[in-house]
User: Which sequence fits this backbone?
């Protein structure tokens, strides 16, 4: 397969780039919105500098835990944030998730700030998943997002 | 890996939030009619028909006509690992970013 799986989301927020930047990078604000509904986010480590790591856990209100880790690659306030993103365990399967890259681009636009989020699963990682038999089940998705 | 439609086609099919919402909904509920989907997702019936057709062409869902209604359900074996990853991350960000939007609106009013 030659396609790289990429999630691209563009969204406009009614605030300045700086306010949006702070929502992404201030740990007190991040825990307010990061993750699905019915989850609380706990940040264990956030070494906010290029090359610094972060680690957090999302706790579902049904007692499940989803751990996430990554490294900040580019910090260019308030325009660009690049970080790696890896589920330490993919939705309770016992297998780590792939190492992927998230890029957040922010620019001022009429009505506030336009943010483009790009999340890339590199081909090599996609192949690893395949080899590990990282398997598809909608039950996992349901547990993670479901009521 | 089970035979699947073109991966490119499947990736494109999941490029729209409406379509990932349809997949998310079907993954929770099993089978739903096009009109149920239209009501719960608050998108027009013609738009729902268009989106479900694209998803069917990409091999991600199946549609079946019974008693003048159109029933949709997921084809889970058609989703390979990369597509599953894509779908979960897309939903993760859609949900998180709408929470971020609320967070920012709330901050403005305090």
Assistant:
């Amino acid at each position: 397969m030659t396609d790289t799986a990429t999630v691209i989301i563009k969204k406009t927020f009614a605030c300045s780039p700086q306010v949006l930047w702070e929502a992404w990078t201030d740990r007190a604000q991040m825990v307010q919105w990061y993750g699905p509904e019915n989850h609380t986010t706990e940040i264990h480590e956030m070494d906010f500098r290029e090359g610094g790591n972060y680690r957090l856990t999302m706790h579902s209100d049904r007692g499940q835990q989803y751990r996430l880790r990554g490294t900040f690659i580019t910090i260019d306030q308030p325009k660009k944030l690049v970080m790696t993103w890896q589920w330490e365990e993919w939705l309770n399967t016992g297998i780590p998730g792939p190492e992927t890259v998230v890029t957040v681009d922010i620019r001022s636009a009429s009505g506030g700030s336009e943010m483009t989020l790009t999340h890339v699963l590199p081909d090599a990682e996609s192949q690893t998943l395949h080899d590990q038999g990282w398997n598809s089940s909608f039950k996992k998705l349901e547990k993670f997002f479901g009521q | 890996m089970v035979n699947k439609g073109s991966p490119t086609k499947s990736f494109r099919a999941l490029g729209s939030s409406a379509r990932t919402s349809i997949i998310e909904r079907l993954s929770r509920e099993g089978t739903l009619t096009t009109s149920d989907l239209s009501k719960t997702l608050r998108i027009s019936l013609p738009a729902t028909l268009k989106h479900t057709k694209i998803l069917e062409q990409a091999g991600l869902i199946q549609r079946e006509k019974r008693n003048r209604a159109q029933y949709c359900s997921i084809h889970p074996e058609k989703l390979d690992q990369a597509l599953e990853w894509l779908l979960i991350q897309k939903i993760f960000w859609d949900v998180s970013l709408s929470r971020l939007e609320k967070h920012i609106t709330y901050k403005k009013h305090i």
About this structure: The domain at 3-38+73-144 of chain A is CATH 3.30.530.20 (Alpha-D-Glucose-1,6-Bisphosphate; Chain A, domain 4). Chain A has a mean pLDDT of 87. The CA atoms of residues 89 and 96 of chain A lie 4 Å apart.
